[in-house]
Specification:
It is an enzyme of class 2 (transferase). It is found in: Golgi apparatus membrane. By secondary structure, the chain is α/β, with parallel strands linked by helices. It is built from twelve helices and ten strands. The chain folds into two domains: 218 residues, no CATH class; 109 residues, no CATH class. The strands form two sheets. An eight-stranded mixed sheet has the order 3-2-1-4-8-6-9-7, with helices on both faces. A two-stranded antiparallel ribbon has the order 5-10.
Length: 370
């Protein structure tokens, strides 16, 4: 039997070890529950690793050092080339009749979180491919998107953004004409676009025109450059970061698609959103309307490769039209370029809602009033 003078220190050491193990375990549980420690590692792609100075790359592009901009451009190029689809092992492969949802993302992460949350509750969402198209490289947004686990996800990055081109076209060139000067003043100043003011006499503002450039690039990229969607013939639904969807939006979208043969045989476009002044249970009916496309059909648009081919063949009409966004340009294509105008099947009770601010639209209205 062990002597008492030896047993006591051994027992003390043993108790201290047990106490240390319990303390360590409790600390681990506390850190995990308080979100200080992530519950699971984030995906590798777009993690900043040794590029620590990219962590604040969402800051105003004018403040970014040229070396930082160069590194952002390199990361964007790598991501667009890799085309990594997250959750593909769990939900893939993408079926040809599955819906591809393309979301245009700027930097309003609070709105984006509402959209993603609404998508997560949608019926059959696990069958879709979510394509997040970014015009700002932002670590917080990247981390948030890469944590989505309810369907396949891929990120693409618009490579001609104001963030990566802060002082050259399509960004803000130092020699661009100021917005409000007259054409005579612009000619004297000899600024870049002196001969090309818009319909209301204003000169180009890069922070507004980027939205249209981005839309055109992402559509081309999804239909022609992404390996996963290059030959996809199913529907592509276009959303924006400040949209919100109903739980049955996919069901209604597919119902509209199967109904076109009977109710809208010549339909090119499906539309899940509208601009009702008030929303009631009665207005939520799945009643659809077949009509000629107009600029109000710009929320929750869905079309297939056949329709996209018609749009792409009218690239000159789309790109040269005097428009800050894509909707009036699509209308111009429909009315001036196509042999037959676009026909749209729109839902009376919207399944896509706009929850953001209408800053660009307000500016457009004020210009029309001048």
């Amino acid at each position: 039997m062990m002597p008492k003078h030896i047993r006591f220190p051994i027992r003390t050491i043993f108790l201290l070890i047990i106490f240390f193990i319990i303390l360590t375990y409790c600390s681990f549980l506390f850190l995990k529950s308080s979100n200080v420690m992530p519950s699971k590692p984030q995906p590798f792609i777009l993690r900043n690793l040794d590029y620590g100075y990219l962590d604040n790359s969402s800051e105003t592009s004018e403040r970014l050092h040229p070396k930082k901009i160069l590194k952002i451009m390199q990361r964007i190029h790598t991501a667009n080339k890799q085309q990594l689809i997250l959750n593909a092992n769990k939900y893939g492969p993408l079926e040809n009749d599955s819906v591809v949802i393309v979301i245009q993302v700027h930097k309003r992460i609070n709105y984006l979180k509402y959209l993603v949350n609404s998508l997560s509750h949608a019926k059959d969402i696990s069958k879709v491919l979510l394509v997040f198209s970014h015009d700002v490289y932002d670590k917080e947004i990247n981390d948030y998107v890469q944590a989505i686990d309810f369907c396949m996800v891929i990120q693409i990055f618009y490579p001609h953004s104001l963030q990566t081109h802060p002082h050259t076209f399509p960004g803000k060139d130092p020699n661009d004409c100021p917005r409000n000067i007259t054409k005579d003043e612009a000619l004297i100043k000899k600024c870049n676009n002196a001969l090309y003011s818009d319909h209301y006499g204003h000169y180009r503002e890069a922070n507004f025109t980027q939205a249209k450039h981005h839309w055109w690039w992402k559509a081309n990229h999804v239909f022609h450059d992404l390996t996963a969607t290059r030959y996809h013939t199913g529907l592509v639904l276009f959303l924006e970061e400040d949209h919100f969807v109903s739980e049955d939006f996919l069901y209604v979208l597919m119902l509209m698609q199967t109904s076109t043969k009977n109710v809208c045989a010549h339909c090119n476009i499906l539309c899940l959103g509208n601009y009702l002044n008030e929303f009631t249970a009665k207005s939520y009916r799945a009643k659809a309307d077949c009509s000629t496309f107009d600029a109000s059909h710009n929320m929750g648009l869905a079309f297939n490769r056949t329709t996209w081919s018609l749009i792409k063949n009218c690239a000159q009409a789309f790109c040269s039209h005097d428009d800050y966004n894509y909707d009036w340009s699509l209308l111009h294509v429909s009315e001036k370029c196509l042999k037959r105008k676009f026909t749209v099947l729109s839902i009376e009770g919207p399944r896509v809602f706009h929850i953001g601010s209408w800053q660009v639209y307000k500016i457009w209205l004020s210009e029309r009033a001048d």
